[in-house]
Amino acid sequence: MINEIKTIVNNYLNNAKLCNLTLGTVVSDGVKVSDRLTIPSELIKGVLGQYTTVNDKVRLIRNHGGQEFYIVEIIDRDFVIKGSTVKLSLDGVIKDYKVEDVIK
Amino acid sequence: MSIQFLVKVDDEIWEISECVTNISYTDKLNDGCSKLEFSYINADLDIKNGSVVSFKYDGENVFYGYVFKHGKGKDKEESFVAYDQLRYCKAKDTIVVKDDTISSLVLKMCNYFKLKTGVLTNTSYKLPVNVQDSKTWLDIIYSAISDTLMSTGKKYALRDEFGEIAVRDLESLKLDLVLGDSNLVHDFDYEKSIDDDFYNQIKLASDNEISGKRDTYIARGIESIDNFGLLQYFDVLDKNYNPSQAKSMTDTLLKLYNREQESLSLDCLGNAKVRAGTSFYGLISDIKLNKRLIVKEVTHEFLPNHTMSVEVSI
Question: What is the DSSP string of B243-265?
């Protein structure tokens, strides 16, 4: 009896597609998660999607239900944000700049 | 009545119509494969798992499938359970549904499992793009059938027709058959309830990207609330719908749930044409029933006399 209940709960949880975190690689028509599964770009949400290029590794959150995927970060890619410092070179002279604001 | 019962064991076909002592056939609408249970008095033929079974009754093709279970007691009688090809579609897989229809998904499935196909009704409705991750093929197709129903109002059945997988529009499965208290039915069981799956107010919550918060949408059936009291359905949508989509979903759900649930099962003389998904005309004066009914589930008992019990949706 206990085993049957465990099986039922397991099957249910697997079928319910709870929220989870997955890793994927950006390809031309979506994000490849495994050899069998490439999530089509229609289902990829979040602003970060615009800043990815093919072969970027991304971390995704799958929503409860499994029909939407949000890019939470692009792995190993730093972003220019307010308050960070960037090094810029002009005619061989390198200077540090502090970012006051980011305009899209 | 005539029975033709064939089995194929190790590439040899045997007729065992005379040795079969019990035959029962169960079929459910869009809920797994159909099942044939039979017992047989062993006369030097060992039917094994995987053996092919073919059963015709009065010339009507009833069942073609494969033995999945067998067992026996002390006497010579052995019992068997056979399933049709859809049994193989209980396997799980991961697929992306894109530019697909019900029929194209079924074709993919049959190609993958190398199953024989028959009439695959072309369902022109294109399914929304979605990911089906480690789900059974049957569940994938059933959810495609329910998506199609929601959007087009047309209901399809996935079934195995004597060894051929088919997709049929229920409209095309109407039988010229009347079942009623004066006609073939010897018992029935009828219930009308607002206890389960009955709601007259639908409340849906959906995240709204423009307002940046969760909005709720309500549809109510005023007259029904007066009659039965307020019975509310509430759900949080798991996808971002725009306000007009969410509103129309509440209306659809209200239509679906705001009616008294009626259930009816009939015990009657058998008719081998009756399978899940077919419909017949029901005529029972006691409960003022006078309309076409769709078979949800049917169990036929063929021996000694052919009877069936039918569960219908009203």
Answer: HHHHHHHHHHHHHHHSS-EEEEE
Touching B: A residues 59-88, CB under 8 Å = 63-68
| pLDDT value of residue B240 | 66
Pick A63's closest partner by Cβ from B129, B139, B238.
B238
Choose from A37, A39, A44 for mutation: most chain B CBs within 10 A. Answer: A37
- pLDDT one-digit tens code per residue, B164-214: 999 999 999 999 999 988 778 989 999 999 998 899 999 999 888 778 888
Query: Left, alpha or beta for B153 (phi > 0: left; psi -120 to 50: alpha)?
Result: left
Residues 6+ apart with CB under 8 A from A1: none
**Beta strands B289-301; B307-313: pairing state:** antiparallel
How many domains, chain A?
1
Averaged pLDDT for residues B60-85:
93
Residue A81 lies in a domain: no
Q: Amino acid identity of A31?
A: V
- CATH code, domain carrying A59: 2.40.50
**Is A91 a domain residue?**
no
Contacts of B282 (CB under 8 A, 6+ apart): B178, B179, B180, B264, B266, B289, B290, B291, B292, B293, B312
Residue spans of alpha helices (H) in chain A: 2-16
**In-domain check, residue A11:** yes
Which structural domain, as residue segments, surrounds residue A36? 2-74
Residue pair A82/A99 in contact by the 8 Å Cβ criterion: yes
The span from the CA of A9 to the CA of B251, in Å, is 32
Q: Exposed, middle or buried, B190 (CB in 10 Å: 0-12/13-18/19+)?
A: middle
Helix (H) or strand (E) holding B188: strand B185-193
Quick check: B154 contacting A, CB < 8 Å? no
Q: Which residues of B28-60 are buried (b: 16+ CB within 10 A; e: fewer)?
A: bbbebbbbbbbbbeeeeeebeeebbbbbbbeee
Rounded Cα distance, A6 and B182, in Å: 49
A9 lies in some domain: yes
What is the predicted ipTM? Answer: 0.73
